[in-house]
Automatic annotation (TrEMBL):
SUPFAM superfamilies, alphabetized: ATPase domain of HSP90 chaperone/DNA topoisomerase II/histidine kinase, HAMP domain-like, PYP-like sensor domain (PAS domain)
Keyword set, alphabetical order: Kinase, Membrane, Transferase, Transmembrane, Transmembrane helix
Keyword Metal-binding in record: no
Protein name listed in UniProt: histidine kinase
UniProt xrefs under PANTHER family: HISTIDINE KINASE, SENSOR HISTIDINE KINASE
Presence of keyword Transmembrane: yes
Catalysed reactions, as listed in the record: ATP + protein L-histidine = ADP + protein N-phospho-L-histidine
Domain of life: Bacteria
Enzyme Commission code: 2.7.13.3
PROSITE patterns (alphabetical): HIS_KIN (PS50109), PAS (PS50112)
Record-annotated PAS domain positions: 125-171
Enzyme class, broadest EC rank: transferase
Length: 447
């Protein structure tokens, strides 16, 4: 049975066993010398000198052999102790190949150099990680297997309103973070902390340290980002609404003032009826345009959740294509390909995409092609046109933004909203093989 390597060794030490071994090796020579001394009596001066010199030389060589064996081992012991203590600067001398002890010292020196390089890389990576943890705005908390806090970053201190020296060692319940250890509470939640309240994204990751399980909790404050996105959304909406309202109300105001002055003229001009009728018609047209705009806004804002069901695509695509007669549209779609979708909403999205493609091709005399492809994860419906392409893509999906006369500006925004409500996506980009653009509506296979 192998005992504990840390326990005190039993029996003779290595040095004692080595001495006994050397004595055992010398014993025959000493016996021969003693026999010669016995047989050569009376002993001459020369013989006595020679035998004494031989005995003394034997003992000296034995002591020298003992030192040559033991001292390199002490050197190796010191080198290994330095490695254990983390001191990688020491090196053993006489490290060279082709020698038993030299090979061992060579390997120890190489090991020391390797460990020094690895520690340097670990220290640099740890320093970088520490800087990242301090700089990020995500609150990080690490709890051990007893739910006691072992690590907290500055963002976590701000969230708890507590310095790390006071927080470390406290339990998750004492810090009001016990909810984060519950897997059912993960995701986006509304919560109030001493450092602020709002909506937070909570994630928990498991790891081991010192052989014991730990949990790392990441708490991201979404309120600031959501408020900023909300502010930008309101700015875009107000800008578009203001633009549309000004386009409608400015001419109405100007015409109303003109008609007011006209009816106050005495005697009235001979053609005043024609001018009034024309002015009132313009006012009616602008009011109708503003009404259509508001109806379009209502359609975009009140889109219901999709009622998804298995749907064979080819018949639906054929029906959509029949509605667009301005340009020829070719269909490439497997006959039996099906997808889980709301047929009404999907049809509306495709109508908008085909309408845009047809209007673009009217400028160039090109054609439109509807290509459907699928893989293990996605079904991709691509509307490929031969129009002039996209000049500026920044405002393509901004609601109510349009460059077409009489356009509502909600076609692409509505199509993207339909795609995203199905768990898919909509992209629009210029073609790489020819003039025109490709609108790709991607839907997940599993819905």
């Amino acid at each position: 049975m192998v005992g504990d390597w840390r326990s005190r060794p039993q029996g003779a030490s290595f040095e004692r066993r080595l001495r006994l071994g050397i004595v055992a090796v010398l014993l025959p020579a000493l016996m021969v010398i003693g026999l010669l001394l016995y047989q050569l009596r009376p002993l001459s001066t020369l013989n006595g000198f020679l035998l004494g010199f031989a005995a003394l030389a034997t003992l000296i060589l034995a002591a020298r052999l003992f030192q040559r064996v033991v001292y390199p081992l002490y050197t190796l012991s010191n080198l290994l102790e330095a490695l254990r203590e983390g001191d990688y600067s020491l090196r053993g001398s006489r490290a060279h190949r082709g020698d038993a002890i030299g090979d061992v010292i060579w390997e120890v020196n190489t090991l020391s150099h390797t460990l020094r390089e690895q520690r340097l890389r670990v220290e640099e990576a740890t320093a970088l990680l520490g800087k990242v943890i301090e700089a990020i705005d995500i609150a990080l908390f690490s709890f051990d297997d007893r739910d006691q806090l072992r690590l907290i970053n500055p963002a976590g201190e701000r969230l708890l309103g507590m310095r790390d020296e006071l927080a470390l060692g406290q339990t998750a319940q004492a810090l009001q973070l016990e909810f984060a250890l519950d897997a059912r509470q993960h995701g986006t939640i509304a919560r109030a902390f001493p450092g602020g309240s709002g909506r937070f994204d909570v994630r928990t990751f498991g790891f081991r340290e010192g052989g014991r399980p730990h949990r790392l909790i990441a708490v991201s404050d979404l309120s600031t980002a959501l408020r900023e996105e909300e502010r930008l959304a309101w700015q875009r909406l107000i800008r578009v609404l203001g633009h549309e309202l000004n386009n409608s109300l400015a001419p109405v105001k100007s015409l109303a003032e003109t008609l007011h002055r006209l009816v106050r003229i005495e005697p009235p001009p001979e053609d005043w009826r024609e001018d009034v009728e024309a002015g009132l018609k313009v006012i009616a047209d602008r009011a109708a345009s503003l009404s259509r705009f508001m109806q379009a806004y209502s359609t975009l804002a009140k889109l219901p959740p999709p009622n998804r069901r298995p749907l064979v695509l080819l018949p639906l695509l054929q029906g959509v294509v029949r509605l667009e007669t301005r340009v020829p549209i070719a269909i490439q779609c497997p006959a039996e390909l099906a997808v889980l979708a709301d047929p009404d909403q999907l049809e509306q999205a495709l109508i908008n995409l085909l309408r845009n493609a047809a209007e673009a091709c009217q400028e160039t005399g090109g054609e439109v092609e509807l290509i459907v492809e699928s893989d293990a994860d996605w079904v991709k419906l691509q509307v490929v046109d031969e129009g002039p392409g996209i000049a500026a893509a920044d405002n393509l999906f901004v609601p109510f933004f349009t460059t077409k006369p009489g356009g509502s500006g909600i076609g692409l925004a509505l199509a993207r909203q339909i795609a995203e409500s199905h768990g898919g996506r909509l992209s629009l980009e210029n073609r790489r093989d020819a003039q025109g653009c490709v609108a790709c509506l991607s839907l997940p296979v599993q819905g």
